[in-house]
Amino acid sequence: MSHPFAGSPAMPFDTFRHPPSPAPPKPDIHAALAALDPPRKHYKWYYSTPPASAEMSTPAAGLHSFLRGYFHLKSADWAGNAPVPLSSWSAPELAKLPGYYVMPLHLSMAETVAADMSLEDAGTVTEQSGRWLPDTELAVYVQEFERNSFQGGLNYYRVATDPRYMTDLVVFAGKKIEVPALFVAGSRDWGTYQDPGALERMGEACADFRGVRIVQGAGHWVMQEQPEKVVQLILEFFG
Known about the structure:
Elements: H1 29-34, E1 40-42, H2 43-47, H3 52-57, H4 63-73, H5 91-94, E2 102-104, H6 109-117, H7 122-130, H8 135-148, H9 151-160, H10 163-166, E3 181-186, H11 198-205, E4 209-215, H12 222-225, H13 227-238
Parallel strand pairs: 3-4
Antiparallel strand pairs: 1-2
Helix pairs in contact: 4-6, 4-7, 4-8
């Protein structure tokens, strides 16, 4: 759900007798994003920095306000979500992503969320997202992130953005998801398209791919925003 699986690494076959040619250097996407007007940065690499957890755990507006805004901005309730496929992993294409994915260069995630939320009506936001994430349930998230910080979750990004760790995935080279697989996402979820081409590669990454189901009236939190529709899709899939 919400983030397509792009597949395992390519099989490094017969490299002893036929060493691969060095790959041409990739353009520095971070320099290209920083050169945009206004300058930007990618959230995955921000999440990999040492200050990210503390900046998100103790935001100036308070953790409850930050999380309410974060959940709202990535949901179908925010008018700024109108996702479209991206043609390439390039700065001009990535710049189409909202600030919570491609952030202002000099802002933290909490500051990015606060800037976008300053344009929203607080009462309307609480009413909208409160339908699928009431304050009583949001308080559980607040309590646990206050207790544990965000670092446990952010360690995923520290691994995913470091080639030294990602080389461990070569052990799965050529491996497909063998069990039947279905991809479910919200119609207003940029996560479906943030990695250009990943959705299209799922047909190759899965040995028995059962297709894509797009849920109307949902953003990134499809299972929370539209739980009945998601349950219906799961039951149909198992049937």
